[in-house]
């Protein structure tokens, strides 16, 4: 799965086979995991957070911070790693973040984060994996 440059051409049946039910719900159906449930909330090692769907590197560990939201939060993604679009579900307007490679739903970005960007990329841990630095 990791490093698959043709990830966006997979069928829904292939996605269902390759992802856990929770990963599928979040990445493919725009779901949200319960706050405080992801082991990635407590990940403190140096390394890279990657898309659970296709292995695309998304965030370096140095941009992760404790937002108090209950979800892994970052102030900046890797260049070209994510894309955003307007999400008008649940009677509010938010900015959805998805993987630039496979278009999997990762979470949302808000403008209440720390310097230097002032942004909070609030990500679902189920949508990501972690690769520790060697």
UniProtKB/TrEMBL annotation:
EC numbers for this chain: 1.8.4.12
GO cellular component: cytoplasm
Keywords tagged on the record: Metal-binding, Oxidoreductase, Zinc
Cofactor section: Zn(2+)
Domain called MsrB: residue spans: 12-133
GO terms for MF: metal ion binding; peptide-methionine (R)-S-oxide reductase activity
Signal peptide bounds: none
Coiled coil: none
A Pfam family the protein falls into: SelR
EC top class named in words: oxidoreductase
InterPro entries: Met_Sox_Rdtase_MsrB, Met_Sox_Rdtase_MsrB_dom, Mss4-like_sf
GO biological process terms, semicolon-separated: protein repair; response to oxidative stress
Protein's UniProt keywords contain Lyase: no
Catalytic activity: L-methionyl-[protein] + [thioredoxin]-disulfide + H2O = L-methionyl-(R)-S-oxide-[protein] + [thioredoxin]-dithiol
Protein family (similarity comment): Belongs to the MsrB Met sulfoxide reductase family.
Protein's name according to its UniProt entry: peptide-methionine (R)-S-oxide reductase
